[in-house]
Amino acid sequence: MALERTLSIIKPDAVAKNVIGQIYTRFENAGLKIVAAKFVQLTQAEAEGFYAVHKERPFFKDLVKFMISGPVMIQALEGENAVLKNRELMGATNPKDAAPGTIRADFAESIDANAVHGSDSLENAAIEIKYFFG
Ligand code: UDP
Question: What does UniProt list as catalytic (predicted)?
Answer without folding.
Answer: 117 (pros-phosphohistidine intermediate)
